[in-house]
């Protein structure tokens, strides 16, 4: 089941993975000695924490603070009733959505392209969905496998964004369907990360390997589970892929689903026969990960024990001067 709210979320996530990779990498590395947009650490962060969108967090941070009940009551009276208040809020939300969509829309594509198209412009067009730029570059003899310094091709970029027409054009001109970038990710990995089932099916029909591994030895199934795209997971399971395939840390897709609390995906994996007792390199089964998660939650909810000497700060605690409770008198 695809949630419509996830479509802009996936697009925002894909946009950040390409245009804000450097910021994510620097945050994880804590250093500015060498600027790399995305490293293995970013894949590990996706593995352990799932997909994150800084743009969506920014939008959430701009949400209005909820007013007090008195303010709401006054506003209802001033506006003329609760129905008018609801309509007013709907209009405000609509304006915010339109402003956010307008800020993300690429500039319009020119009617006619004169002169040669640079490689950087070609790769950027794959992200922004500018078909005319792609066609002009390929018509001038440009290689469809042109890549950037991170070995990321236009096929990778268009797969993440879900630009079907551009993907078909690139494949028609001989783009390598399993071209691996510096993280050994193929276009199939990026399509799973972007949540585009139709792209997955297109790449598969052109001979893409659905069991290809990246630097973490993660399959596309692993990536789809971590990023929470249920339809893609269901499609892979229908193909009869190895449901218990393990990555570099010995984690199966079920390990990842339990760790990230992907409830629907957990049910899907179990219904298709995922092994609940398989162990990763740390010796943990998916069931063990549930128990560890419950233990961490219980520990977080338990009140902290008083530290020695806390009575000096006015806190309750053991006191040396505290009188002992009276002892019962033995019966004569």
Automatic annotation (TrEMBL):
Repeat is among the record's keywords: yes
Start and end residues of each stretch annotated as Disordered: 97-116, 295-332
Gene Ontology terms: biological process: negative regulation of myoblast differentiation; regulation of transcription by RNA polymerase II
GO cellular component, one term: cytosol
Placement of ANK repeats on the sequence: 150-182, 183-215, 216-248, 249-281
Coiled-coil region: none
Subcellular location as annotated: Cytoplasm, Cytosol; Cytoplasm, Myofibril, Sarcomere, I band; Nucleus, PML body
Gene3D superfamilies: Ankyrin repeat-containing domain (1.25.40.20)
Taxonomic superkingdom: Eukaryota
Keyword Iron: no
InterPro entries cross-referenced by the UniProt entry: Ankyrin_rpt (IPR002110), Ankyrin_rpt-contain_sf (IPR036770)
GO molecular function: protein kinase B binding; RNA polymerase II-specific DNA-binding transcription factor binding
PROSITE patterns with a match to the protein in the record: ANK_REP_REGION, ANK_REPEAT
Keywords annotated in UniProt: ANK repeat, Cytoplasm, Nucleus, Phosphoprotein, Repeat
Ranges of compositional bias, category Polar residues: 310-324
Function description: Functions as a negative regulator of myocyte differentiation. May interact with both sarcoplasmic structural proteins and nuclear proteins to regulate gene expression during muscle development and in response to muscle stress.
Subunit relationships: Interacts with ID3; both proteins cooperate in myoblast differentiation. Interacts with TTN/titin. Interacts (via ANK repeats) with TCAP; the interaction is direct. Interacts with TJP1 (via PDZ domains). Interacts with PML; the interaction is direct. Interacts with p53/TP53. Interacts with YBX1. Interacts with AKT2.
UniProt protein name: Ankyrin repeat domain-containing protein 2
Organism classification: Eukaryota, Metazoa, Chordata, Craniata, Vertebrata
């Amino acid at each position: 089941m695809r949630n419509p709210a996830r479509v802009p979320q996936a697009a925002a996530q894909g946009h950040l993975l390409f245009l804000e990779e450097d910021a994510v990498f620097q945050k994880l590395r804590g250093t500015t000695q060498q600027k790399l947009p995305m490293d293995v650490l970013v894949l590990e962060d996706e593995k352990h924490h799932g997909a994150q969108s800084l743009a969506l967090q920014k939008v959430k941070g701009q949400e209005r603070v909820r007013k007090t009940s008195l303010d709401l009551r006054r506003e209802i009276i001033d506006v003329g009733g609760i129905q008018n208040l609801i309509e007013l809020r709907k209009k405000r939300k609509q304006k915010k959505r339109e402003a956010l969509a307008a800020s993300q829309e690429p500039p319009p594509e020119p009617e006619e392209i004169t002169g040669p198209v640079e490689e950087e412009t070609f790769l950027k067009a794959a992200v922004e969905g500018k078909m005319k730029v792609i066609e002009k570059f390929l018509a001038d003899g440009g290689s469809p496998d042109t890549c950037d310094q991170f070995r990321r091709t236009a096929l990778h970029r268009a797969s993440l964004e879900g630009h079907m027409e551009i993907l078909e054009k690139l494949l028609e001109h001989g783009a390598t369907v399993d071209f691996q970038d510096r993280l050994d990710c193929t276009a199939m990995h990026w399509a799973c990360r972007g949540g585009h089932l139709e792209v997955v099916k297109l790449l598969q029909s052109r001979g893409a390997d659905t069991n290809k591994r990246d630097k973490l030895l993660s399959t596309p199934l692993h990536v789809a589970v971590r990023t929470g795209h249920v339809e893609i997971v269901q499609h892979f399971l229908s193909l009869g892929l190895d449901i218990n395939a393990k990555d570099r840390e010995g984690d199966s897709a079920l390990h990842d689903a339990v760790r990230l609390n992907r409830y629907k995906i957990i049910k899907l994996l179990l219904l298709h026969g995922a092994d609940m007792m398989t162990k990763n390199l740390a010796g943990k089964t998916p069931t063990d990960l549930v128990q560890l998660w419950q233990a961490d939650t219980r520990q977080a909810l338990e009140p902290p024990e008083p530290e020695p000497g806390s009575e000096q700060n006015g806190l309750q605690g053991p006191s040396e001067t505290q009188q002992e409770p009276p002892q019962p008198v033995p019966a004569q």
